[in-house]
Amino acid sequence: MREYTEGLWAKFKETVWQPITKYTTKTSALFISMFTLFIGAILSMHFFNTNNILSSISFHNSQKNPKHLMNCTAYGPTRACPSNYSYTPFNPKLDRDHSLSPTCPEYFRWIYEDLKPWAYTGISREMVERAETMGLANFRLVILNGKAYVETYRHSFQSRDIFTLWGILQLLRRYPGRVPDLDLMFNCGDPPVVLSKKFSGPNATSPPPVFNYCKDETTLDIVFPDWSFWGWPEINIKPWVGLLKDLKEGNKRKRWIKREPYAYWKGNPSVSPNRQDLFKCRASKTQDWNARLYAQDWDHEVKNGYKQSNLAHQCTNRFKIYIEGAAWSVSHKYILSCDSMTLLVKPRYYDFFARGLIPRHHYWPIRNDDKCRSIKSAVDWGNSHEKEAQEIGKRGSKFIQEELKMEYVYDFMLHILNEYAKLLQYKPTIPPKATELCLEAMSCPANGLAKKFMLQSMVVSPATTSPCTISPPYSPSSLYSLFQRKANITNEVELLEKMYWQSQDKQKP
């Protein structure tokens, strides 16, 4: 209150009193009388609306002040989340004014499509719990009044579940009061798990809603950002905010025109037959497919301090290959961010942002059934069309830098959880075996890179800006037009490839 009145009087002296002193005594007396009435009205309004004003001041101050930081000393003896932890229940009024919010990237509109299987039925408690009885979930997450609870059914590979939950905690800290009460199941595996064919037909039951990192045309999983945005300690991949800066700097080390004129890929080929097939495109004494392919030995990297796996040091070729592993691959965003023209081997799966990419605009499509010839023709085309190849690479990088920045990752999480919560037909409750989630419970027991990455990715204070505004759902006609556009561009590229090989055949003796 004191700060408010001091500010009011300072404003009065600057804008009202100083101009008054320039007038005559008679004029000044008139102004003073009028001003007295004015101040009386203002103060009257102020005291009648004290609660509103104070709540407004409190809200804005909370945006500037740091949130609760970790207290591992207090957590250690009790292993309980601090009782003085401040939680903010869901307040739908916070989302009413979108006038100053930017429009979300286009790929946000796929949220509606992913939730469409439950658009008319809603989501019942039985549907949610059926995911666990079917063995489809690693954990169950409940959010009540801004507080998170988790029931773990089975641990995921490495620390996927831990860093996914850590990311959700950071969302609650970034947007206090904006995350609704909800109850969901999450699968942390590679392939999607909710097969649509099991839930089709006249007598079929509604599918269980399960969140996952990817899906394909035969599954109904709800796509969510993967754990690596908050770090992947097992292979020393930093949290996204810092890594994105490193990748941007790495791009500056070598101009596109000075880079190696070949297609580069480095990774683990043993995780899928698809990648093993790619390795048939390695250069030999008799054939060069313009591909430079390297197997990543992670055991060797761990022992040698990750000297050969720095992603920011791999932007050295004009072209980079993206190919799926056991399902979609985390490497998608890293490969696109290099300013190199991405050669994207036709994927089966897609993550939450991939459907916002356009062929020959953000990447160059590569055939999956004839990889080597497709890669060679793409590289030769790019080296003979340098300007357009550079532009494709830069647009891919720009997409990652601007439309996949961490702010939008959090906004996507917020929007999909809000839309999901609207479909719930029941009031979520805390499962009997669930435990409360807090910073201390997750980070205090951690050590090494896991602890380091948690500290680096921790949200220290709430966002000072509103989340982006999501565009309306696609209409059937607009969705068809989008599919048709992508298919037409891909067909054009395949025609160029066909013409390339016809010309190559003519040159043979």
Quick recap of the structure?
This protein is of the alpha/beta class and 509 residues long. The protein has 17 helices and eleven strands.
Could you characterize the architecture of this molecule?
- The chain has two domains: 66-82 and 99-232 and 407-471, no CATH class; 239-405, 3-Layer(aba) Sandwich (Rossmann fold).
- The protein is 43% helix and 10% strand.
- It has 17 helices and eleven strands.
- The protein has helices at residues 2-20, 25-48, 50-64, 72-78, 110-114, 125-133, 160-174, 240-251, 273-278, 298-303, 331-336, 371-384, 386-403, 406-423, 439-443, 448-457, 476-507; strands at residues 139-144, 147-152, 182-186, 210-212, 222-223, 260-267, 291-295, 317-322, 341-345, 364-366, 435-437.
- The protein is globular and about 80 Å long.
- The termini are far apart.
- 36% of the residues are buried.
- Mean pLDDT is 86; it is low at 1-65.
- Write the element-wise H/E pattern from the N-terminal end onward: HHHHHHEEHEEEHEHEHEHEEHHHEHHH
Main beta-sheet strand count, sense and barrel state = 6 strands, mixed
Using the alpha-carbon principal axes, give the shape: globular
In what range is the share of β-strand residues? 5-15%
Structural class determined from secondary elements? alpha/beta
- Give the beta-strand count: 11
Give the integer mean of the pLDDT values: 86
Distance between the termini: 90 Å
- Uncertain segments are 1-65
What is the count of helical runs? 17
How big is the Rg?
Answer: 28 Å
- Classify the helix fraction into a percent range: 40-55%
The largest sheet has its strands arranged as: 5-4-3-1-2-11
